[in-house]
């Protein structure tokens, strides 16, 4: 295996390593850096299977999760299951989802003060979910050609498949953020499964960029206080939601729409409304996606109008909220 595996390290050796380290990079990621040629079979084989919940993750991260659980920092909220009727997560007892101590975003759009929904006044936080993907190559080219930078909330599995696209985005000064390993509903995962999803997405971003991401987006926004706490206590990540949804995912099929009345013309009007809208307080944190070719074509048609007429300060999400997209000093053992 082309990088050091924690699974064969004696526990005392692990703690001997982290005792002198204070940064998350030194504790979690540098010891396991994948040094094989990026994109090679050896490089890819060092990661979990794509499109699956990872079955394991390093002992250092697991120990930190156990410590946080023992200290009562991770709320004991039941895991959800997908409802057969709606396809969305549901708690075994429906009242759990309504409990403010659960603070379920999926059930009632509940947010905590540390959740980020908005950018700063006058900003347009340019960002995309679900990359990297060749379907967004024209968007990547536009960004580079026009000196525009964005945040990409990338899925670890997709980075494994298209590492060069992730490197190109990073080398173009874009911010790379975590969107988990395989894009599951987070509240349907156990503590260990969620930690594995987050860890492996961060590790592969680190291996491609040499940087530890500081920003995160929950797939489909699905979160409650249990997974929020793991994100904060174990990984030091800031969760980003949105305050304007493009609904571009309605066009994720070859023709027609998944959403009645929401076709290419409708999406163009959505973006046009932003171009004619005055900057506001709070600023805009839109939700857009990379994998949908038809939607991307509309974005490429309409975004230049937003740049020219919207009067926004267009910046990546981190810059638009005044936060570094990279972690420097988070200490998992503090």
Topology:
Elements lengths: L10 H9 L4 H6 L11 H5 L13 H12 L10 E2 L6 E2 L3 H5 L6 H4 L14 E9 L5 H9 L5 E4 L1 H6 L1 H9 L3 E4 L12 H19 L5 E2 L8 H11 L2 E2 L4 E2 L18 H12 L10 E2 L5 H17 L3 E4 H5 L13
Parallel strand pairs: 3-4, 3-10, 4-5, 6-7, 8-9
Antiparallel strand pairs: 1-2
Key attributes of the depicted protein:
globular, 10% strand, two-stranded antiparallel sheet, 39% helix, 334 residues, alpha/beta
Could you walk me through the main structural features you see in this protein, from its secondary elements to its overall organization?
This protein is of the alpha/beta class. The strands form four sheets. The chain has a four-stranded parallel sheet. Strands 1-2 form a two-stranded antiparallel ribbon. The chain has a two-stranded parallel sheet with strand order 6-7. The longest helix is centred in the middle third of the chain and has 19 residues. It is globular.
Separation of the first and last Cα atoms: 31 Å
> Tally of extended strands?
10
Largest beta-sheet details: 4 strands, parallel
Low-confidence stretches: 1-22
Strand order, largest beta sheet: 5-4-3-10
Shape summary: globular
The H-and-E topology, N to C, reads as HHHHEEHHEHEHHEHEHEEHEHEH
Instruction: Report the average pLDDT across residues.
Output: 92
Strand content: 5-15%
The total of helices stands at 14
Q: What is the gyration radius calculated from CA atoms?
A: 20 Å
Q: Can you give the helix content as a percent range? A: 25-40%
Classification by helices and strands:
alpha/beta
């Amino acid at each position: 295996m082309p990088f050091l595996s924690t699974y064969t390290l004696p526990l005392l050796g692990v703690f001997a390593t982290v005792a002198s380290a204070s940064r998350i990079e030194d504790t979690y990621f540098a010891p396991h850096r994948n040094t094989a040629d990026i994109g090679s079979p050896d490089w890819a084989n060092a990661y979990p299977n794509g499109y699956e919940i990872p079955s394991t993750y390093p002992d250092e991260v697991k120990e930190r999760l156990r410590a946080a659980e023992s200290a009562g920092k991770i709320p004991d909220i039941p895991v959800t299951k997908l409802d057969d009727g709606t396809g969305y997560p549901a708690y075994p007892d429906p009242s759990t989802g309504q409990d403010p101590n659960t603070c379920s975003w999926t059930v009632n759009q509940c947010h905590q003060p540390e959740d980020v929904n908005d950018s700063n006044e006058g900003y347009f936080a340019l960002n995309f979910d679900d990359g990297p993907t060749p379907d967004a190559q024209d968007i990547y080219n536009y960004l580079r050609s026009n000196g525009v930078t964005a945040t990409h909330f990338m899925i670890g599995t997709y980075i494994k498949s298209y590492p060069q696209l992730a490197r190109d985005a990073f080398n173009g000064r874009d911010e790379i953020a975590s969107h988990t390993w395989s894009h599951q509903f987070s509240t349907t995962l156990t503590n260990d499964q969620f930690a594995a999803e987050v860890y492996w997405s961060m590790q592969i971003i680190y291996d491609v960029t040499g940087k530890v991401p500081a920003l995160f987006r929950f797939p489909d926004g699905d979160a409650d206080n249990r997974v929020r706490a793991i994100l904060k206590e174990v990984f030091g990540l800031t969760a980003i939601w949105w305050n304007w949804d493009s609904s571009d995912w309605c066009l994720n099929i070859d023709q027609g729409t998944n959403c009645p009345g929401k076709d290419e013309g409708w999406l163009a009007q959505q973006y046009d409304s932003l171009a004619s809208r005055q900057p506001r307080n709070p600023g805009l944190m839109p939700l857009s996606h990379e994998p949908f070719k038809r939607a991307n074509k509309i974005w490429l048609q309409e975004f230049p109008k937003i740049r020219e007429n919207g009067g926004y300060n267009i910046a990546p999400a981190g810059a638009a909220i005044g936060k570094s997209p990279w972690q420097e000093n988070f200490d998992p053992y503090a």
